[in-house]
Structure formats: structure tokens, C-alpha cells
Specification:
single chain, alpha+beta, 2 helices
């Protein structure tokens, strides 16, 4: 499972990442602060 978190607050992004990983330890979680970065980070 791959998860993309788009959040400009690093603290909130890390909290969301930890929640996802606690529910799905094998998930690949990518956190981005900007929409453009998130779009380029996600495979098309």
C-alpha cells in the first residue's frame, strides 16, 4: 500500500504518517508540503 500525505504542517504530517503506519506497518508513506511536489512524487 502506498499513501501520499499532502500537509503543510510538518507536525501534523508526521502525526498522520504515524497513524497510517500503526494501522498498516508495511505501507509506504510519502509526505509532501506542496501540491506540485505531491503530483510529481506520485507515479502516473
Amino acid at each position: 500500500m502506498r499513501v501520499l500525505i499532502l500537509e503543510d504542517d510538518p507536525w501534523i504530517a508526521d502525526l498522520l504518517k504515524q497513524i497510517v503506519l500503526s494501522l498498516r506497518p508495511s505501507a509506504r508513506v510519502d509526505c509532501q508540503e506542496r501540491v506540485a511536489d505531491a503530483i510529481s512524487a506520485w507515479p502516473g
